[in-house]
């Protein structure tokens, strides 16, 4: 309901806390034209291949 207006648009989505990346991949299936970004403190997250138009960044969001 909240994301339906973005389905056919070039939206950008940020997920904080990637974990295994499944929620980012689900968003990508629903929002096919979107660019999906994720951040996580775990350095292994940046080594994962989550697919096209999904980019991850590794840092601690609680630090300045």
Automatic annotation (TrEMBL):
The organism's place on the tree of life at top rank: Bacteria
InterPro entries, alphabetized: SAM-dependent_MTases_sf
Name under which the protein is recorded: Uncharacterized protein
Organism: Candidatus Phycorickettsia trachydisci
